[in-house]
Amino acid sequence: MKVKFCGAAREVTGSAHLITLKDGYTILLDCGLFQGRHKKMAEWNRHWHFNPKEVDCVVLSHGHIDHTGRLPKLYKDGFRGKVYSTHATRSLCSIMLLDSAMIQERDAKYHNKRARRKNKKASTRKALYNQGDVNKVMGKFVGLGYEDWFHVHPKVRVRFRDAGHILGSASVTLEIKEGRKTRRIGFSGDIGRPNRPILRDPLPMDEVDYMICESTYGDKEHSAPPAESAQFLKIIQETCVEKQGKLLIPAFSIGRTQEVVHMLDQMETKGLLPKIPVFVDSPLAVSGTEIYGTHPECYDNALNQYILTDPNPFGFNRLTYNRDLEVSKQLNHRKDACIIISASGMMNAGRAKHHLSNSIEYKKNTVLVVGYCSPETPGGKLRAGAEKIRLFGEEKKVKARIEIMDSFSAHADRTELLDFVKNQNRKLRKLFLVHGNYEKQKQFKGYLEKNGFKNITIPNMGEEFVLD
Q1: Residue at a domain's end among 408, 437, 457
Q2: Are residues 395 and 414 in the same domain?
Q3: Which of 161, 283, 285, 441 has the most crowded CB, counting CB atoms within 10 A?
């Protein structure tokens, strides 16, 4: 049995790990898109570390595009097996992959139009995949519940356990029988945080022999919820009431947007939220929020209790959900104080990039960064303290206030990661760290070693290991 790391290896995006049994059967854990504007990302997205035609099945941890976004290309390039996921992940993929296809097609069209202006004989760029490819791969999905074992092969059974990251997220345990040996491989997917709103806390995995574990925030601790809420309200007060400015919150459409909205809803219910308009300006976020409403089986007890007094945990009177492009453009010209929540979270695409371009040069405005951003993206540059930023071919001075709240992150911090894996130390033969910046991974490796873990490996892209 072998495992090959085909994405999110010393990188944060592009999750894909290929397990090959002795009889040649192959299981791909996730099939994510590499995200970011660096040229290497585009190259990685177009090439595989394996033959898609030889992949027998895919098992998904959750619906985020960096874990699912190359599924339509996998199908386009010859994959015809089943895609196993939780029910909620299947629902989210139905909208997120279509959105991704539209972005692929739009970006290719835009690139080709610009290229032809400079050179009529310029080579054309093709989209990674189209909406037809999405529809075909969605037909391969098999939705399953948490906790129940299911077989993907006579020698392999699999179980999903709630990972508490986004709606439908799961850790994956594979039990593989080869000859007289039975081995368990664990894949953490993305691990959520305990005591967060909306979703249940992540559950520890069964003890496994080999574990593939995320490490996004393996170098730090996040703020506690009470401090987070107070800081968020303080930023709203200072920006929207005292300065009468706009608060722009670039947020991932799935997960982060719903958590931000629910926190605002709680503030409104308690009478703490200033009387200002709030806009969720993202078609995908609007659809995603609707899907959140159809999967109450993923809610935690706190949200179930909250719904008894507030039937709509994702809505209040001054909150507007917007899909319309013209309304989105009008938001850029508003002079009054407001909150705009928009995608993408890294500010490298979508409506958030346009709002950023129209807001960044005004001192009264604030940009609140609520999650990870690749270093080369506008969000990553703002996190790093850039004084100037290039948007749509124009250089903009950063005059708006930049605030960062990683406590909103849906990823566990290093203490929470340790809590998640600590039950593994007795039986574990090897721990692989993935889905993280390499420097942070090295820090997390040292942290785990200080807490008793051994045989920790940080694999390179394309590296393969034999699991005896």
Answers
A1: 408
A2: no
A3: 285
Residue 422 and residue 448 in contact, taking contact as beta carbons nearer than 8 Å: no
Closest CA to 177 of 25, 57, 29: 25
Residue 124's CATH number? 3.60.15.10
Both 204 and 250 in a single domain?
no
Domain limits for position 260: 225-408
pLDDT (tens place) for every residue of the chain, 468 residues total: 999 999 999 999 999 999 999 999 999 999 999 987 677 888 999 999 999 999 999 999 999 999 999 999 999 999 999 999 999 999 999 999 999 999 888 888 877 887 777 777 677 788 999 999 999 999 999 999 999 999 999 999 999 999 999 999 999 999 999 989 999 999 999 999 998 889 999 999 999 999 999 999 999 988 766 678 899 999 999 999 999 999 999 999 999 999 999 999 999 999 999 999 999 999 999 999 999 999 998 999 999 999 998 999 999 999 999 999 999 999 998 989 999 999 999 998 889 999 999 999 999 999 999 988 888 899 999 999 999 999 998 999 999 999 999 888 889 999 999 999 999 988 999 999 999 999 999 999 999 999 999 999 999 999 999 998
**Residue with token string 């401090």:** 227
Q: How far apart are CA 37 and CA 214, in angstroms?
A: 22
In total, how many domains does the chain have?
Answer: 2
184 lies in the same domain as 268: no
Residues 171 and 255 in one domain: no
Are 130 and 199 found together in one domain? yes
